[in-house]
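Hi V.,

You were right to ask for the full record rather than a summary. Here it is.
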Amino acid sequence: MTREQQLRGRIKLLTWFFIVGLFLSGVTAIPLLPEVDWLAEHLGGADKSSVLGGWLMQIREALMQTQSHYPALFYGTDWLAFGHFMIALVFIGALRDPVRNRWLFDFGLIACALVIPYAFVFGALRGIPVWWRLVDCSFGVFGSIPLWFCRKWAKEIEQSMD
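Predicted structure:
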């Protein structure tokens, strides 16, 4: 197996990893109340004295009231999921030709970097605790790792073609 074949295989694997991550992230934006119920049950929501437990119970109550009085607001999270699905689909171009579509890795890296200021600015405006904003930021940090390698390897393939 040539170096190029090795790199293309690695790029394909990490790109699939990123696509699946985007898809799963989108899927989790749809059933919010059942997810928070599950988290509260399994991560200490019954212990309202803990920081996590208190936060989960507050979110659970807000979601229950919203679902009861304003269910149309959840339509926004349905569209959030749709956005994740569409971005995941775009990365199929990187699977097809990672060199020609290397810009997708740049796009993904930029998006991952922007998660951090976005989470801190809008999290602060919405009263989200800093520790939860760090959880949100982790998606950008961990998402950038496979993209960085894919970009690096696609550039290496391109340079070997010159």
